[in-house]
Amino acid sequence: MGRLAVLLLAAGNGVRLERSEPKAFVHLGGKSMLRHALEGVLRMREMAQIVVTVPISYEALAREIVRNTPGAEGRQITVVAGGATRQQSVRASLQHLDDDIEVVLVHDAARPLTPPMVFDAIAATVRETRGGVVPGLPVVNTIKRVDVDEGVVLETVSRDELVSVQTPQGFLREDLVRAHIDQDVDFTDDAALAASVGVPVRVIAGDQMAFKVTTAWDLRRAEQLMAAGALETIRVGSGTDVHAFAEDDRPLWLAGLLWEGERGLAGHSDGDAVSHAICDAMLSAARLGTIGEVFGTDDPRFENARGEVFLRATLAQLKGLGLEVGNVSVQVVGNRPVIAKRRREAEEHLAGILGATVSIAGTTTDTLGFTGRGEGIAAIATALLHSRTEGPVST
């Protein structure tokens, strides 16, 4: 399966916004709209090559914004000069794609609050249908066709077959490239351009938050939504970890606590199934993989490492993505130790590390399975993450 690319268009001048700087560089809640849009792209499930088009005089500032955007470090992000029109900017972006790119999403930085799930849905549908895909919303207002010179209503247009189209718009790379070859007509969006060369385009559900900031009123609306907390990103992930009891006399570390007199758990690190399951849940919510993928299963740096080491390292990665932990819940499955005896202590210890509410419960399997036979312990964790609250920044 070929890779994904996102073309982030930020070269528009934004005359109707009544600002001196280009629209994508106008600040919204202390950050440029370009940075907001880039953050949304970076939070997609699938890692994408990203090409950002900006006015030529803003290339240096755009690169600074990219450098300062959480999650951008180590990502393949190219800033290029855009054209005078949308099509020229897309055409310029296509020249910078890697050979193995199969699917291309085209997105307007002027839709800075578009949720990451919209990008994910568009990319998945393009791969499934092998055609063009755009997000859209039903038209809710009554639509009239009028004589533009006289202002006289000619007819009322049925809304049943109308949708209001948004971005990102997704296509197979070969289709988008073909649509741009020797194209002289200036279309209002990429879907119309693709359809003009016979590419089938379908509409899937869009999102109210993907509205376009065109006027000063739109900008105020976006600022009000941010102030009201309507844009907080909520993510939920689950994780599981299992460890057998060790054959030697190592101590038991569980939920970050030392359990005196209890048989320890086998593992390259301390075998803390609770801490490891929490890490897995947090990494899952952030779409970063598993604890084994991120930290390795036999890395010498983590030999006998306490669960706290993995928890703090995972938190550092979440911070880089602008995320923090809201709540964690853990179910411990096993005959021993008796979790209820130190439940409050364990919850307070882990809450102190995570900076979030933690709830832990223990259960048994009524002698069924390896936990019922007393061969080991399993832990199942769920973590809720949300976007971090930050003050204004300079980009």
Radius of gyration: 26 Å
User: How do the strands line up in the largest sheet?
Assistant: 5-4-1-6-11
Distance separating the two termini: 36 Å
Give the biggest beta sheet: 5 strands, mixed
Tell me the overall shape: elongated
Overall mean pLDDT: 90
Instruction: Please trace the helix and strand order, writing H or E for each element.
Output: EEEHEHEHEHEEEEEHHEHEEEHHHEHEHE
Share in β-strands: 25-35%
Structural class: alpha/beta
Helix fraction, binned, reads 25-40%
Give the number of helices: 12
Low-confidence stretches: 389-395
GO molecular function: 2-C-methyl-D-erythritol 2,4-cyclodiphosphate synthase activity; 2-C-methyl-D-erythritol 4-phosphate cytidylyltransferase activity; metal ion binding
Protein name: Bifunctional enzyme IspD/IspF
Pfam families: IspD, YgbB
Family: Belongs to the IspF family.
